[in-house]
Amino acid sequence: MPRPSLRTRSRKRHLLRLPGGRVTTHFKRETVNVLRCSRCGGILHGSPRLIPSKLGKLSASEKKIKRMFGGILCHRCLRGALRSSVQSG
After folding, report:
1. What pLDDT is recorded for position 53?
2. How many domains are there within the chain?
3. Helices within 1-89 (DSSP H only)
4. Residue 21 has pLDDT above 80, yes or no
């Protein structure tokens, strides 16, 4: 019986033949969704698409986007927000 974290049908099963001739089941990791802009729903570029255990091994500069609202707004929405804030006063 697989461990409790693998007892879900959302994990892909992969049959693997071992050197002794036995066939066993390996469970593939679930994929991480692409980060999206909170305003328009577009894809955020520059942020890694990794599972949390791999994300923790990256340096801070590899995890974050350095501009304002990096990781929240895409570059197009940020440009529009900055323009509207400058025009309004």
Report:
1. 87
2. 1
3. 52-55, 60-63, 75-88
4. yes
